[in-house]
Amino acid sequence: MHRLRRRRAICPMLRESSSVSSCPAGGSGPIGCSFLPGMTGARRCPWFSTCTGVGNICRSGAKQRIVPVRENRPDDVAYVGDVIDDVAAQLCTDKTRVYATGFSGGARMSSLLGCMLNGRIAAIAPVSGLRWPAPCTGRTIPVLTFHGLADPQNPYDGKAEGRGDEWLESVPDALAGWAGHDGCGPKVILEDPPGLLSTMRYTGCRDGAEVRMIRIDGLGHAWTRKEIDTTEVMWQFFKSHRLP
Fold it and tell me: The dihedral of CA 126, 127, 130, 133: what is its sign?
């Protein structure tokens, strides 16, 4: 009952922030689940506002931290599953095209969903906060992440001093964890042309999955549209993946 009350409380905001209110021509549309950093309250998020036909679920965190999962923390994985059900019941949606992204703490949340809801979520794209929330079972899931090499909040190399164990993992180590889960080849490929952008990726992944990170030199803790249009690149990635 508690989960149901939480779901009902958030649904007016979901309906307001969704761009899909009826079936578009040619069929149903995808759902983009966007998670903000930990904060109180809720607000609309613009990340998919320019993507026609995307039902945008935007959820801000509470003061309690929800990643990693612990007994004394809210079960927001179950909550997200409830919200997906509720939105699908209200809007014309394609359940094979449900995607999760988020920034900072929202990136950690979308990483967790990729592990624990990978039977319902087709792909994830965490920004400035990729994690490998092992142990993780279930289907392969495509992963695209973006990270600034000068990020002081979620350091690229991990080992953030004065924080818990969840801050020790580096972003490359998290990417490698996802590559192992997706059955990719063991060697990471680094593409580092002149300029601010470089890419780390794995090949040979099962079931057509991909595991890729776009690194931005000099960028701090940000969802950027300057050095690269994060939203547009992410949306092109999402469009190429759906549940079997």
Answer: negative
Name the residue among 189, 86, 102 with its Cα closest to residue 154. Answer: 102
Model confidence at 86: pLDDT above 50: yes
Candidates 118, 120, 106, 98; CA nearest to 76 is: 106
Whether 208 is covered by a domain: the verdict is yes
The answer to whether residue 62 is domain-embedded is yes
| Distance (Å, whole) CA 92 – CA 30 | 9
Look at the chain and count its residues: 244
Residue 202 maps to a domain: yes
Q: How far apart are CA 216 and CA 200, in angstroms?
A: 11
Q: Rounded mean pLDDT of 159-165?
A: 78
What is the average pLDDT across 162-178? 89
User: What is the residue range of 131's domain?
Assistant: 2-239
- Residue 244 counted as domain residue: no
Residue 234: per-residue pLDDT: 94
Read off the pLDDT of each residue in 110-132 and give the average, rounded to a whole number: 95
Confirm if 64 and 75 have CB atoms less than 8 A apart.
no
Question: What is the 8-class DSSP label of residue 172?
Answer: H
Per-residue pLDDT reduced to its tens digit, 49-61: 334 344 455 554 4
**Whole-angstrom distance, CA of residue 105 vs CA of residue 117:** 17
> What does the mean pLDDT of the chain come to?
79
Concatenated DSSP letters of 105-167: HHHHHHHHHHHHSTTT--EEEEES-----SS--SS---EEEEEETT-SSS-TT---TTS-GGG
